Each structure stands twice: as C-alpha cells, then as structure tokens.
Amino acid sequence: MAKRTKIPEKIKSYLFEEAGMKCANPGCNNYRTHIHHIKEWSVYQTHDSEHMIAVCPSCHDEIHYGKLTIDDETVYLWKNIKREKSNRDHLYIEPSYTSKLLLGSISVTGDNGVKVFELTNNTKLTYRIEDEDIFLMNLSISNQNGKEVLKVIENHVKYIVDDKINFERRPGRFKITTNRIIDFIPIWSMPIIHKMQPNYKIVDGVLTLTDVEVLKPGLVKVEGLWARNDVVIIITNDSLNFIKPGYSKPLSLIGEGENSVLKWSGKIDSSMFRFN
Q1: Nearest 10 degrees: CA dihedral of 199, 179, 274, 128?
Q2: Residue 73: pLDDT over 70
Q3: Which residue from 39, 37, 23, 30 is spatially nearest to 83, judged by alpha carbons?
Q4: In 30-55, which positions are buried (b, 16+ CB within 10 angstroms) versus exposed (e)?
Q5: CA distances (Å), 247 to each of 104, 189, 228, in order?
Q6: d(CA 228, CA 208)
C-alpha cells in the first residue's frame, strides 16, 4: 500500500471555506473540522477535493461508525450546499431543574427565568425556563448609535460581520471583543470605569463586550458591558456594577459566588434592575 501523503494546505483551505468554516453537516454547529475522503484514500489513494469534505471529529466518526447511517449520498448533499462564512453559533446549555445566571460573584434566578435588565430593545440580558429544565438565554449588545452587534435568541447566536468586531468560541463558551472602545462606552463614564475597574477586560486597546460560559447544567456565567447614553452596566469576574452620571464610583454588588442568590418571583415581564 502506498504511503499516505499529507493533504495540501490549499485543498484544506478550499474545503473549509466550502463548508462555511464549520462542519459541513447542516445539523451540526461545530467549528473544529477534519477532512473526510468520501472516496477512501485506502482505495483511490488521491486527494481529490471533489470527493472530500470538511466535517467535525464527531460527524467524521459518525460517518464511519454511526448507528444512524450517514451514507455517501448524504455527505455529497452536505458538500453541495452553497454557503458563505457563517456569523451564527449556538450555545448548548445542559438542562437542569435549577437555573442561575452568574453575574460576577452574585447569581440571579427565578422560577420561570429572569429579565435581568433591558436598557433598550437591543441592549438587554434575560433568560427563561421552558418545560421546567430547558434554559433559554436572550442577550443583545449594541453600540452607542443603537446598532446591534450581537444578538442571542434562545441560545441561537448571531453577530455582526465587521473587521472591528472579533468573535471567538468553543463548545459551551463564546466571547466578543472590539478595538472600537469609544463606540460602546459613553465618554462621561470613562473616568469612573478606569478608576474603579482597572482589571476590567480592556487589554492592549481591546474591549471585551461579553464573555458567556456554561459552567454547570443550568448555570451560565456572563461578563460584559452594556450601555445607553445615561447608564452603563459592567459585569466583571467579581462584581455587578452600575454607573450613572453624577456617580463618583459605580454602585457595585459583590457576593460570595454562585450561592449568593437574588431570586425573582412571578412573571418575567419586567426587569430585576430597572433604570428610568
């Protein structure tokens, strides 16, 4: 048998782009991919991009060994989907009969979920519970002109395609950053932020707009910055902070971790934290 040769980088790049820089399976949201030879190398001994596809390790394994068969016809169907680079993602949150959002060192919860805050229609953080244990998060961030750069609707993520916005992800976590700090932070609030939050995530001129991570079933940690012209909310690793004009320092809520809990009772038709 001939020694298997490396797949040329040019072919890899072509196949990754063909698949939309994700697994080619339209039912899979994994972004880490392998190259699968639809016509097996052991038989044909060639790297022909017409018969190769980018799929994630899990789908690659299912193609070869899965009990629910993925035949060549299905794989070619995936390959022939016309795609552009995706600006979508999905955050899977393992179901649990207890649910909490960890905001710094304080958790918020509610029997049916919590609307944590809603500064504008596209600057908000909330979650709800469906069928007792399904955690559905909703989150949006906009710049000072009201342009939405990130939207999460019931765990489905959509972000703006912009060279000033960077989106990073792995299963169970995503983070969005920008080097256009002035677009997201009101000028009046900057002296307070720099004084009170020296460790907030502004590193080498790059601002973390939000960092969301699933820690446990039903427990999601959120950090980030949300602002409108008269209020700024900053969630750091340690605290939940509110800033308004005239404040000499932020109003900060600090607890002892996920077991320091604020509970919302009743319907989630109004915000836990409201600002006139």
Answers
A1: -100
A2: yes
A3: 23
A4: bbebebbbeeeeeeeeebebebbbbb
A5: 21, 9, 16
A6: 17
The span from the CA of 135 to the CA of 137, in Å, is 6
CB 168 within 8 A of CB 175: yes
Pairing of strands 106-110, 261-264: parallel
Nearest to 225 by CA among 114, 165, 140: 140
Stretch 79-87: mean pLDDT: 87
Q: What is the pLDDT of residues 94-151, one digit of tens each?
A: 999 999 999 999 999 999 999 999 999 999 999 999 999 999 999 999 999 999 999 9
> What's the maximum distance between 2 C-alpha atoms anywhere in the chain?
77
Compute the distance between CA of residue 89 and CA of residue 135 in angstroms, rounded to an integer: 16
Say if residue 25's pLDDT is above 90.
Answer: yes
pLDDT value at residue 203:
76
